[in-house]
């Protein structure tokens, strides 16, 4: 028998409070019927004895304290699932908004996911090719990994997200079992249109499941959007054996919605007003990436977040960094120089790449190129710091070489453009040509055998249009 409760105890922001409630559970779905006959959905977000706090998705405007009828559904929020999800666009709570009607559901699943036994996890191996040299070579994205992008206000993270959707593919197979789940939270209408139009123009929409929560949509829906997206991803990965890349943008909008919602519940705030459970809440999303024993599919996550005031110690990037396996940091100085994508190499890393690259995955020399490019670019920063103090003319000849290498590295390797899609072979060959600009004696992280096979200074000078002046010639001879 289903009970209906007449009247409400209190209305506070997006929450309504109902007293003398028995037999209900946390996260249970609720239907509220208004005086005019319309209904709204909500869910139980807090229980204290017989007092239930209910989060109303469509807002509480117009609700009556005396005549609202409340009915508990006896189950948590569920998402309708089917292979028909591919190519469709949904709102933040999983309702179709593309005008193509409802999907025919094969099953429904709790958006909070199922508990996953850590023992059933498989260590992530093999990589996803993004076509972006700085990511593929230096911070490789591994299947089953969670690798966030730390951006800032005004940075081209939306363009980078679109490029990842357009270009990402798995390293083996024809790509038919690869798809992308894209979730946008708190975006403006023009940004949402940009995402959708870009995917359609690139011809990739049939491999994309899109969830869009607009900035004028209820904040409650914003807290559901990533969970709906991850539920769809888990279904496609573990029941249809697909490799799924989940892109979530912007996690900062999600966290701010969580802060507003927490405040309306009267909870004691933590750092910068965010709820004390922000870490565990983010972990409940990020940890849904991975590979399970016996499953042929995988879920890989790229959460994108904007750091307020470019502060990487802000609670959102700080906690995200603890949970995830590395990060890709966008650099504002590179962006102002016109470099796209403006990925800051030194603060970025992928903690799982060491076991997903090399022979059998990318190429045998990948690890050597990665280590040496990192080391050389670190010396570039040292040389630039020194030049800012004593002037570039006073630098040693080898420091001047590193300055030249840094300029070439940023111009040709980091800066590749929005429509450029490089294979892993092209990326690694470009890396070798850049390293070959330096004297061979400076490449101290690579074995002589590997250098013999790939180091070619004449080819590098020809590629980058470098003329052997006296200094270059002398250094080249020393390195031979």
UniProtKB/TrEMBL annotation:
Residues 131-350 form the ATPase F1/V1/A1 complex alpha/beta subunit nucleotide-binding domain. InterPro entries: ATP-synt_VA_C, ATPase_F1/V1/A1_a/bsu_N, ATPase_F1/V1/A1_a/bsu_nucl-bd, P-loop_NTPase, V-ATPase_su_B/beta. CDD domains: ATP-synt_V_A-type_beta_C, ATP-synt_V_A-type_beta_N, V_A-ATPase_B. Belongs to the ATPase alpha/beta chains family. Residues 10-64 form the ATPase F1/V1/A1 complex alpha/beta subunit N-terminal domain. It comes from Amedibacillus dolichus. HAMAP family: ATP_synth_B_arch (MF_00310). Residues 355-454 form the ATP synthase A/B type C-terminal domain. Produces ATP from ADP in the presence of a proton gradient across the membrane. The V-type beta chain is a regulatory subunit. This is V-type ATP synthase beta chain. Keywords: ATP synthesis, Hydrogen ion transport, Ion transport, Transport. The keyword Ion transport applies.
């Amino acid at each position: 028998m289903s009970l209906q409760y007449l009247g409400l105890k209190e209305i506070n922001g997006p929450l309504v409070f109902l007293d003398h409630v028995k037999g209900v559970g946390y996260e249970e779905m609720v239907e509220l019927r208004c005086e005019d006959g319309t209904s709204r959905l909500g869910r139980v977000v807090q229980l204290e004895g017989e007092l239930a706090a209910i989060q109303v998705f469509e807002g509480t405007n117009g609700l009556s304290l005396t005549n609202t009828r409340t009915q508990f559904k006896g189950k948590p929020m569920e998402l309708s699932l089917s292979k028909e999800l591919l190519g469709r666009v949904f709102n933040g709570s999983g309702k179709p908004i593309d005008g193509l009607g409802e999907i025919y559901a094969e099953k429904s699943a709790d958006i909070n996911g199922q508990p996953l036994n850590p023992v059933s996890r498989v260590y992530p191996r093999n990589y996803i090719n993004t076509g972006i040299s700085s990511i593929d070579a230096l911070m490789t994205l591994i299947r089953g990994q969670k690798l966030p992008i730390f951006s800032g206000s005004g940075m081209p993270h939306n363009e980078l997200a679109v490029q990842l959707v357009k270009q990402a593919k798995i390293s083996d197979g024809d790509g038919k079992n690869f798809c992308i789940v894209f979730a946008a939270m708190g975006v403006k209408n023009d940004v949402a249109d940009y995402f959708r139009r870009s995917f359609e123009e690139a011809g990739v929409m049939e491999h994309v499941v899109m969830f869009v929560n607009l900035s004028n949509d209820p904040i409650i829906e914003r807290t559901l959007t990533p969970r709906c997206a991850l539920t769809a991803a888990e279904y496609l990965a573990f029941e249809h054996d697909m490799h799924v890349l989940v892109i979530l943008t912007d996690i900062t909008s999600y966290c701010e919605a969580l802060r507003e919602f927490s405040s309306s519940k009267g909870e004691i705030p933590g750092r910068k007003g965010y709820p004390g459970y922000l870490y565990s809440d983010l972990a409940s999303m990020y940890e849904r990436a991975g590979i399970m024993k016996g499953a042929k599919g995988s879920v890989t996550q790229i959460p994108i977040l904007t750091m307020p005031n470019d502060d990487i110690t802000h609670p959102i990037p700080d906690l995200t960094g603890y949970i995830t396996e590395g990060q890709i940091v966008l650099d504002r100085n590179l962006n102002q120089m016109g470099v796209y994508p403006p990925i800051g190499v030194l603060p970025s890393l992928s903690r799982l790449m060491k076991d997903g690259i090399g022979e059998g995955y990318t190429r045998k020399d990948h690890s050597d190129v990665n280590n040496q490019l990192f080391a050389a670019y670190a010396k570039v920063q040292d040389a630039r710091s020194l030049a800012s103090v004593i002037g570039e003319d006073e630098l040693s000849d080898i420091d001047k070489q590193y300055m030249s290498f840094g300029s070439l590295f940023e111009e040709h390797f980091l800066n590749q453009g929005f429509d450029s899609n490089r294979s892993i072979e092209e990326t690694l060959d470009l890396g070798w040509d850049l390293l070959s600009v330096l004297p061979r004696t400076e490449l101290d992280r690579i074995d002589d055998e590997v250098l013999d096979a790939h180091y070619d200074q004449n080819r590098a000078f020809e590629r980058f249009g470098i003329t052997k002046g006296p200094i270059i010639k002398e250094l080249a001879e020393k390195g031979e």
